[in-house]
Amino acid sequence: MALKIAIQMDPVAAIDIKGDSTFRLALEAQARGHALCYYLPRDLSLSNGEVLARTRSLEVRDAEGDHFTEGNEVVTNLRDVDVVLMRQDPPFDMSYITATHILDHIHPHTLVVNDPSHVRNAPEKLFVTEFDGVMPPTLISSSEQDIRAFRAEHKDIILKPLYGNGGAGVFRVRPDDENLASLLEMFTQMYREPLIAQAYLPDVRAGDKRIILVDGEIAGAINRVPAEGESRSNMHVGGRPEATRLTDREREICAIIGPELKKRGLIFVGIDVIGDYLTEINVTSPTGLREIERFDGTNIAAMIWDVIEAKRAS
């Protein structure tokens, strides 16, 4: 069954195809005979109850420097396509939230992946708090007094913006670090939201594991090792990917959260685990497909499309 697929994404010309999961999903969809088009988030409109987008047809090739061909811009009613992949990168800001509200008007008549209502209600660093016994010691607060008390208790901590992404704005604050006041001033000037503080996990030196779940089931994983002198393992900031196997504890964490992901229609999810602790549940635009496939040959894009196709056929 050939499907009409619209991808809401960042500019296709600028993506790094070696590591881009959206591109891998597009390749897989095209190989299955599905018709692709794409649009940028700013090209999405709600007009008299109709969800419209200025789309361009899309053909993709796994060739650096020559990875796509696009057609002329047309206005598409997104109720006339079968699937919308909501794949633009965070930040998870009001623009992102507004897009989920607009896409709510077509889902599930047009299947939006991931479900826009549940994307909106599952910010990466807050969603984790809904599950008992999986997080490291964590504080979400705007109070300098509370954050100082948290550091006094846990000594070595991580501070980061509540809605940040890609490792941006993440600071390790040791017990004797005199920059805490300055950092809190900076965060207060930059963000209106509370901060998130977590106990520093020394296990991060061995890596921050990205585990992909498809419709609530484990699909694959990769370990991301921080660069020398870094406490962040994100590949955006120099983290080194390496092959990995899941521990019993990591499987236990997946078993705890998996049923809820499936219930919420969160088909493609990437979670981050350091040692024995779950730190984030990524539902907006998870990455890692190409790295996992490169290391062990697992085609997670095919698993995702198997689920999507089954949902469209039901």
From TrEMBL:
For the keyword Transferase, the answer is no
Question: Which Gene3D superfamilies does the UniProt record give?
Answer: 3.40.50.20, ATP-grasp fold, A domain, ATP-grasp fold, B domain
The signal peptide, as residue positions, is none
This protein's GO CC annotations: cytoplasm
Q: Which Pfam families match?
A: GSH-S_ATP, GSH-S_N
Q: What is its EC number?
A: 6.3.2.3
The answer to whether keyword Nucleotide-binding applies is yes
Which pathway does this polypeptide act in? Sulfur metabolism; glutathione biosynthesis; glutathione from L-cysteine and L-glutamate: step 2/2
> Which EC class heads this enzyme's classification?
ligase
In this chain the ATP-grasp domain maps to: 125-309
Q: Which UniProt keywords apply?
A: ATP-binding, Glutathione biosynthesis, Ligase, Magnesium, Manganese, Metal-binding, Nucleotide-binding
InterPro entries this protein is in? ATP-grasp, ATP_grasp_subdomain_1, Glut_synth_pro, GSHS_ATP-bd, GSHS_N, PreATP-grasp_dom_sf
GO terms for MF: ATP binding; glutathione synthase activity; metal ion binding
Catalytic activity from the UniProt record: gamma-L-glutamyl-L-cysteine + glycine + ATP = glutathione + ADP + phosphate + H(+)
Q: Which cofactor does it need?
A: Mg(2+); Mn(2+)
Cited HAMAP family: GSH_S
Q: Which family does it belong to?
A: Belongs to the prokaryotic GSH synthase family.
NCBIfam families, alphabetized: glut_syn, PRK05246.1
Q: What is this protein called?
A: Glutathione synthetase
- Tell me what organism the protein belongs to: Pyruvatibacter mobilis
